[in-house]
Write a structure and sequence with these properties.
473 residues, alpha/beta, FAD/NAD(P)-binding domain, Enolase-like, domain 1, 3 domains, six-stranded antiparallel sheet, 8 helices, 30 strands, binds flavin-adenine dinucleotide, binds NADPH dihydro-nicotinamide-adenine-dinucleotide phosphate
């Protein structure tokens, strides 16, 4: 006997739950069904504004049965969509008729592979199961390789204990998907000195033209997931013996050339090659491939969904796919509208929540033949996180993304305390990295959005003795 609902949301991650909750608010009497393969769903709690458009929040895991009464739930896997007749079939054979559907099926780790058979000693991190697997392997590990230079690699490099970490990055500095070489240096100095009390922290302000910023050959170019501080809930200790501070050995501008399973479960022999043409060999118990996200859509559809190059389902600014009444949000989708000047997609909770809510509003409006406009959050990229123990706010084009080469960097740095980077183009703020308790997030939001010419203020804009908020209040 087919079930039916007006709104069907697939996926119990941040995007799917935000979408279902947004629908329950916009259309309180409508039938909303959340279909998800896992009985654990993730929702946003403790949403706290950090600035006018920027929020930080916690991710709460709850049993799907605890979802609000206004949202029906079904624990099963989406198997097939009939978009013309508006019904789906689940893996267990349940048929659900819908009026509108939103696909929020998230992503999976994009694992490094040398093209041969899947290597069991190469693992990814996505959800609780994958972390339990990591924990299991760590318990007997002395040497672990982390491949990748983004969010997960940065977290693991900071959190893994009592194990020799070999961190292999393609770039000339760490955490390149989030920060620039200057901030990477700030983090590393802090890690080395964090025990020494620096009585008079030195503050330096520096302005660099684009060309000065990069070492000659470096070129700027630049994934029911886990929640913030996921690493706090798990003991990530290895078996290399207690040592109070064992810093990762970092292999810059390097990549894995090849790897071979050693006899008697002795681990992997890995051949690394470096950009300067040299190479080296090392042995590790396993590799964590922290190398991005692959959008997950393991279901069929009567009509072809349009996908983007990165494998995500293409959506417009209303989160609509190319198929009528089929929407998508979160890691599974790729923003395919022409973005605002200071926004771009990164697969983050921040954006999964924003996209899920936007999809809910958009579907509700469509069901009542109303018009909605894109949420303001898509005007400005904003992300609040923590890296190496420091609060980090990323705003706009924080690393000069797509600004070509005509931009300036203004940096204020106080060792072990704060690192503030402004990305300025023709005197206007285009992006900012704020590390530490800078209280500058809202000011930077305003400066980026109102495009005020900062040229007249020169370097004073970051003078610690001047409260720049006073300039612009
Ligand atoms: C280790 C790790 C740390 C991270 N840390 C941060 C961070 O600090 N800050 C941040 O902003 N972002 C972080 N992220 C990224 C963030 O987790 C994701 O961007 C976000 O959770 C994506 O949400 P989603 O709902 O789109 O996808 P997911 O969370 O992947 O949820 C997808 C849901 O769909 C379900 N599903 C999939 N296929 C089907 C199907 N066929 N039928 C039914 N259900 C299905 C899954 O079971 C899951 O419930 C991290 C990611 C990882 C892996
Ligand atoms: N604090 C936070 O906000 C956190 C956010 N996340 C998010 O979760 C998702 C998954 O995280 P993660 O897996 O770290 O993804 P990220 O996109 O953050 O980082 C992937 C990294 O792997 C590199 N890479 C990709 N392919 C290869 C390869 N074959 N060999 C070597 N390096 C490679 C990428 O380099 P390149 O960019 O040059 O391709 C990049 O440095 C991301 O969307 C991330 O933003 C995760 C943890 C914490």
């Amino acid at each position: 006997m087919p079930r039916d609902c007006e709104f069907l949301v697939v996926g119990g991650g941040i995007a799917g739950v935000s979408c279902a909750e947004s629908l329950a608010i916009c259309r309180p009497t409508a039938s909303v069904l959340l279909l998800t393969e896992s009985s654990i769903v993730k929702s946003v709690t403790n949403l706290v504004p950090v600035a006018r458009y920027l929020h930080k929040f916690d991710v709460r895991e709850q049993d799907v049965s605890e979802m609000g009464a206004t949202i029906e739930t079904l624990v099963d896997q989406l198997d097939h969509i009939n978009s013309i007749e508006h019904w789906i079939r689940t893996r267990k054979g349940v048929v659900v008729k819908y009026r509108y559907i939103c696909l929020c099926t998230g992503g999976a780790p994009k694992l490094f592979s040398s093209g041969e058979a899947v290597e069991p000693r190469i693992i990814g991190i996505r959800d609780t199961d994958s972390v339990l697997e990591l924990q299991r392997r760590l318990a007997a590990a002395k040497d672990v390789m982390i491949l990748g230079n983004g969010g997960i690699a940065s977290e693991l490099a900071y959190e893994l204990k009592d194990v020799n970490v070999h961190w292999v990055v393609k770039d000339a500095h760490i955490s390149a998907t989030f920060v620039d070489p200057g901030a990477a240096e700030f983090f590393q100095l802090a890690r080395n000195e964090v025990d020494t009390k620096d009585s008079s922290p030195v503050t330096a302000i520096k302005r660099m033209r684009y060309g000065e910023l990069l070492s000659k050959e470096q070129d700027i170019k630049h994934g029911a997931a886990l929640g913030p501080d996921w690493h706090r809930t798990f003991d990530l200790s290895g078996a290399a013996g207690k040592q109070d501070k064992r810093l990762p050995k970092i292999y810059y501008k390097s990549h894995i050339e090849s790897y071979k399973e050693l006899a008697e479960e002795a681990g992997l022999k890995i051949q690394l090659s470096h950009e300067d043409g040299s190479s080296e060999q090392l042995t590790c118990d396993f590799i964590v491939s922290a190398t991005g996200v692959l959008p997950r859509h393991e279901y069929t559809c009567d009509c072809p969904l349009k996908f983007s190059e990165d494998g995500g389902i293409s959506v417009d600014e209303m989160m609509r796919t190319n198929l009528k009444d089929v929407y998508a949000a979160g890691d599974v989708c790729t923003a395919s509208w022409s973005p605002a000047m200071h926004w771009f997609q990164m697969r983050l909770w921040t954006q999964a929540r924003q996209m899920g809510s936007m999809a809910g509003r958009s579907m509700a409006a469509a069901s009542e033949d109303e018009t909605v406009y894109q949420d303001f959050c898509f005007e400005l990229f904003g992300h609040v996180t923590k890296l190496f123990g420091y609060p980090v706010v990323l705003l706009g084009r924080f690393n000069g993304q797509d600004l070509d080469r005509n931009y300036e960097i203004l940096v204020r740095c106080t060792r072990n305390k704060e690192y503030i980077k402004f990305v300025l183009q023709n005197g206007r703020l285009r992006g900012a990295i704020l590390i530490g308790d800078t209280d500058l997030a809202e000011t930077c939001e305003n400066l980026i959005l109102n495009g005020i010419d900062l040229e007249p203020y020169g370097d004073d804009i970051l003078n610690p003795d001047i409260d720049i908020e006073d300039y612009f209040d």
